[in-house]
Amino acid sequence: MRDVVLIHGGSTSGPVWSLMVPHLERRALAVDLPGRNDPTHYATANFTDWAYAVTGQMDAAGMDRVMVVAHSMGGGTMAALARLFPDRVTGVICFAAVVAPDGAPFLEGLNEPQRELMHRRRAEGSAVLPRPVKSPADEKNPLRRLMRDANSTEALAPFFEPVSLEGFAGVHRGLVRLTRDRAIELDRQDLFAERLRAFGAVEVRDLEAGHMAMVTHPRKSAAVIDELCGVFESKEREAAGVDA
User: Fold this and answer.
1) Residue 109: its pLDDT value, please?
2) Shortest CA distance to 192 belongs to which of 89, 58, 101?
3) Residue 100 backbone phi and psi in degrees, to 5
4) Cα(194)–Cα(187) distance, rounded to whole angstroms?
5) The model's pTM
6) pLDDT tens digits for range 86-97
7) Which residues contact 200 (CB under 8 A, 6 or more apart)?
8) With helix as H, strand as E and coil as C, how does 119-182 read?
9) How far apart are CA 163 and CA 74, in angstroms?
């Protein structure tokens, strides 16, 4: 079975996958993208550097060719990874991951209020998004506490970076629709699927959960990722003429 690399979304970090990973049938690496909570990196943060950081963590873990799962803003890093390292990526799974229009700035994959926030923060001279506010209620709820502890400051620069989707042409493509997602609405998730279909067939699965499904529904999230990876692996065996 192929190893899986998990790419977190904006304002979060690798531990956001921690409840889901034990339920996966395959080895998984939840990467930490660099530059979080580090003011020296905010102005220069970009998806290319983050893609190189992912391969560095893959090398350290002894991973060669992998399936990549990206959540939310992680879609930008996943696109860069598939484009820059086609020999390392066999399939991609968008777990409510943003798929911006090919060649457009990443923020064009966001909804209007989200885009307005990015432009407003930039006009104010800020290099980051506001960090989520901690609440005393977080301490009473273990899931809220996990999400709070995984929170990080997010650089604005990558949101204005043009994104190329060309790397998706050479990999298996999957998308998990989170049907109760309020951050990335269903119609936008469907639009992302259409953008992926420009490069060929896309395996789509529905999961009745909200935006942070890996936290709130870790077992079901793992099951749908394992199932999609299994479909891709079967296609690889079929293409190679190997019996399942």
Assistant:
1) 98
2) 101
3) -70, 160
4) 11
5) 0.94
6) 999 999 999 999
7) 169, 173
8) HHHHHCCCCECCCCCCCHHHHHCHHHHHHHHHCCCCECHHHHCECCCHHHHHCEEEEEEECCCC
9) 12
d(CA 68, CA 212): 18
202: helix, strand or coil = coil
Q: Tokens 């959960």 — which residue?
A: 209
Q: What's the rounded Cα separation, in Å, for the pair 100 and 16?
A: 23
3-state secondary structure at position 236:
helix
Sheet holding 172-178, edge to edge: 28-30, 3-7, 66-72, 89-97, 172-178, 203-207
With a cut of 70, list the residues of the chain below it in pLDDT.
Answer: 132-139, 243-244
Report pLDDT for 243. 60
CATH H superfamily, domain 3-240? Alpha/Beta hydrolase fold, catalytic domain (3.40.50.1820)
Q: What is the pLDDT of residue 140?
A: 73
Q: What is the DSSP string of 19-73?
A: TTGGG-SS-EEE---TTTT-GGGTTT--HHHHHHHHHHHHHHHT--SEEEEEEET
Please name the helix (run of DSSP H) or strand (run of DSSP E) that holds residue 95, with its range, or none.
Answer: strand 89-97
Res 187: pLDDT: 97
* Residue 96 Rama label (left phi>0; alpha psi -120 to 50; beta): left
Question: Directed axis angle between helix 74-84 and helix 47-61, to 10°?
Answer: 70
Backbone angles phi, psi at 5, to 5 degrees: -110, 130
